[in-house]
Design a protein that fits this description.
Largest sheet: 8 strands, parallel, barrel
Shape: globular
Order of helices and strands: HEHHEHHEHEEEHEHEEHEHEEHH
Strand order of the largest sheet: 1-2-3-6-7-10-11-12
Distance between the termini: 24 Å
Length: 307
Amino acid sequence: MINQLVASIKKKQAPIVVGLDPMLDYIPEHLQKEAFEKYGETPEGAAEAIWQYNKGLIDAIADLVPAVKPQIAMYEQFGLEGVKAFQKTVNYSKEKGLIVIGDIKRGDIGSTSAAYAVGHLGKVKIGSKSYAGFDEDFATVNPYLGSDGVKPFIEVCKEEKKGIFVLVKTSNPSSGEFQDRLMDGKPLYEIVGEKVNEWGSEVMGDAYSYVGAVVGATYPEMGKVLRDIMPKAYILVPGYGAQGGTGKDLAPFFDKDGLGAIVNSSRGIIAAWKKDPYKEKFAPEGFADAARAAVLDMKEDINSAIL
């Protein structure tokens, strides 16, 4: 799958992943009204609004970007109906030719970690048959529990030729409370980066590993260091746009050929219709067109910095 991701980035000339992280206040009133008229002001109604919103967004951007990244918490908050909307979103994205990065940030040990890996990336055995669960192409993984929590995912990735992105240096302001702490003279994020490089050496695609890393756009100098530590890891870069990262911050995350990283934007794209400069150009009914315009602007900003 890492080979497919790289090929799609090259084809579309867009190292961009769109975070499908819907909140109800991002969704235009007309979509909420239609969903609530059908299902009431219920979790089922909320899930229907989210699904129709996501469908519109996916239709508008599928030809521009290689991947989407639904954040499962935004769906889980609505219970079972929200999880159904998550599954619909994964399935529809794949039907439209998009690679799906499940932003699940799972991290546990032993059979629990293996169950998470099977549920999101692999196949569960039921009697003589096997079934894919959520069936994302990649998943985000929290390495805090060490190799016991990561290796079950790697085993499933070997079987399914899928991938993971391990949290190394996250974009949030308080990430340094733990991630920047020195251990044996080095910050913890560098030690995690070294482990990512080690884990990744076991599962290589053509040029990059199945094991990637999450490194926030808000820390470009650290990104430069980690790029050297993890030369074969694709880097998923959150923090662009709404969290303050810009195109000029991104060059350290990429290789000299403009590959090696994919940049995430969530609300900066999916809620573009509510934000300057797009809200002046697009009515709420044009939310998907606003998202498309935001992707085109992001593509220009990033490519001007890395190519």
